[in-house]
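Model: You mentioned two targets. I'll fold them one after the other.
Researcher: Yes, keep them separate.
Model: Target one:
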Amino acid sequence: MSGFIVGLTGGIGCGKTTITELFSALGVQHVDADIVAREVVMPGTPCLQAITQYFGEGILLTSGELNRAELRQRVFSCASDKIWLEQLLHPAIRQTLLLQLKKLTSPYALLVAPLLLENKLNQHVQRVLVIDLPESLQLSRAMARDKADEQQIKAIMAAQISRSERLKLADDIITNDSSISDLVAKVSRLHQQYLQQATAIP
């Protein structure tokens, strides 16, 4: 098990996936909360059964999989549905993430989670790395990537911790507003720092 965990987070559209891939290229293993969030609602899981009972069969695609777009629409239009869903999914996601982290063997590992700070997952990490962008850039990148309208992206941004609060809780920050070569250099510097910090753990 990697004894040193770096929590990688940032708002929607900040480039968390790109940064994670750069760390992966250096041999750093990771677990991704977004992937785990999909795994815990796969057909046959207790979570999907509970969601179907609560929202009805209409929440499923014809394949039996969760209709994510429908679910997102429901929870963003009803606060009590959102709270119910979070109380169901967050403990299941947390438990699975921690189990997966235990299996990693690189000198240090990443816990990649958009809601790392909101869901208090930072209590399981040694460093918090925030990927940061000005909010206007964040909005335009997320709209282009997700083919979503401005209102929907703004609603997601509003549901996340504020940029200023996120930066306040960061141990390390990568500003992702320039070239890929600049990002490579920033990741490389942090990689060396994390390797030193990981080996300093008794």
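Model: Target two:
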Amino acid sequence: MITCYLRYEIRLGKLADFEAYAAMWLELLPRFGGIHHGYFLPSEGASDVALAMFSFPSLAAYEQYRKDSAADPDVQKAIAFAKETGCFTRYDRSFFRPLFPKAA
């Protein structure tokens, strides 16, 4: 399994737009075989940082998602929404291999 960790910098005054954008991806990603672990929006502390995590069974499955989603009209709609609203200024993406407790 591979987990993608995203750190977004949200534009001032655009949290509601970012939340709408995030909600789109919560529904989109599972269509392509991923598991979305959610978005984590600002509460206390930094008001311009949001996080997200999602997983795929393998890096190959993630790469297939990237190819398949590129042609999806709903994905294009989400990307256009982010561009139109300017809800975030940048994001960083990192990949991790999760370690879970051993089964009893």
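Researcher: Noted. Anything on target two?
Model: The chain is about 40% helix and 30% strand.
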